């Protein structure tokens, strides 16, 4: 900071009395406005500071708590250590021997010591065999065909692992009807095509049409497939080969209202956005 002092505007500094100006080099103090004398820091300290400007501040700081010689007041004193109340020793241990419980109150029992009250109750269930026999190797899967399905306590009939897997796969297949799309038919490809400016409506007009149900029903071939979703008529044809659920599924709603089927299949799909460029018009009564 002292390097700033010489450059301070002279207006800020009070005019020094001629005594100080005329003083010799031994006198390092100048008179301030109050008549007292203050040391001229701009001379002596400047040299010291220029030696190393990157000196970190002293730690602990001179006025820090660490350096304070003042007695620790109650407010500054750390809180007293909490007094822990140890749990009473377990009855089994005191029954067993006269040695007092350890400070940690942990019962470390040698194997020979009977567990007494701490013994677990005898198990009422039999251990499952898990189909592993002492001879090694997996036994052939047991297929039990239960004829007494009327019994309320009977469980589902046991099945072979292969049958289980088959059943799960079939269910999964039914649930997720995704198909392998052809090359160039990914979601990204569709997005590109939609933004290409190509006429995906197939009407040759940007003007939305008013489509009657009778008109809609005429468009039900793959080359000319229209469907209605939420009152808006879309041309499905350009999207057919891009549909992750397959062309066949999408063609089910050609020429008719597909809203219900769409919502039942994948309500989360943003159809309005995906098919925006395929919007032909709106369904009207007539
Ligand atoms: C223009 C209307 C439609 C559009 C834009 C559309 C779009 C999509 C999209 C983006 C997916 C992939 C969903 C995902 O990965 O989560 C999909 C999957 C599917 N879609 Fe469509 N879809 C339409 C109509 C339909 C209709 C009417 C049906 C049924 C008749 C259908 C049946 C399916 C099936 C079965 C799947 C596979 C299901 C799955 O992976 O979970 N879609 N569709």
Automatic annotation (TrEMBL):
PROSITE patterns: CYTOCHROME_B5_1 (PS00191), CYTOCHROME_B5_2 (PS50255)
Pfam families on file: Cyt-b5 (PF00173)
Feature: compositional bias, Acidic residues: 45-54
Organism: Apiotrichum porosum
Protein name per its UniProtKB record: Cytochrome b5 heme-binding domain-containing protein
Biased composition (Pro residues): 77-91
SUPFAM superfamilies assigned to the protein according to its UniProt record, in alphabetical order: Cytochrome b5-like heme/steroid binding domain (SSF55856)
Biased composition (Low complexity): 1-12, 143-163
Any single Gene Ontology cellular-component annotation: cytoplasm
Family as reported in the entry's similarity comment: Belongs to the cytochrome b5 family.
Alphabetic keyword roster: Heme, Iron, Metal-binding
GO molecular function, one term: heme binding
Domain Cytochrome b5 heme-binding, chain residue ranges per copy: 208-284
Segments of this protein annotated with the region Disordered: 1-103, 121-165
């Amino acid at each position: 900071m002292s390097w700033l002092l010489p450059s301070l505007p002279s207006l800020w500094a009070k005019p020094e009395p001629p005594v100080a100006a005329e003083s010799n080099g031994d006198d390092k103090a100048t008179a301030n406005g109050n008549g007292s004398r203050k040391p001229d820091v701009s001379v002596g300290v400047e040299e010291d500071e220029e030696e190393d400007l990157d000196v970190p501040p002293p730690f602990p700081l001179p006025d820090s708590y660490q350096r304070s010689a003042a007695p620790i007041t109650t407010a500054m004193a750390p809180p007293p250590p909490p007094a822990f109340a140890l749990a009473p020793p377990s009855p089994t241990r005191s029954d067993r021997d006269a040695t007092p419980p350890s400070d940690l109150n942990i019962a470390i029992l040698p194997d020979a010591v009977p567990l007494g009250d701490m013994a677990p109750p005898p198990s009422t269930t039999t251990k499952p065999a898990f189909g592993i026999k002492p001879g090694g190797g997996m036994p052939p899967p047991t297929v039990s065909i239960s004829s007494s399905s009327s019994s309320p306590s009977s469980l589902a009939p046991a099945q072979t692992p292969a049958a289980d897997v088959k059943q799960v796969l079939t269910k999964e297949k039914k649930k997720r009807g995704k198909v392998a799309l052809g090359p160039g038919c990914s979601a990204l490809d569709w997005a590109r095509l939609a933004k290409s400016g190509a006429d995906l409506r197939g009407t040759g007009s940007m003007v939305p049409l008013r489509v009657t149900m009778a008109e809609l029903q005429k468009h039900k071939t793959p080359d000319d497939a229209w469907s209605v979703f939420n009152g808006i008529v879309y041309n499905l044809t350009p999207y057919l080969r891009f549909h992750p659920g397959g062309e066949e599924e999408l063609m089910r709603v050609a020429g008719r209202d597909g809203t219900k089927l769409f919502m039942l299949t994948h309500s989360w799909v943003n159809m309005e956005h995906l098919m925006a460029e395929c919007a032909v018009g709106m369904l009207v009564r007539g």
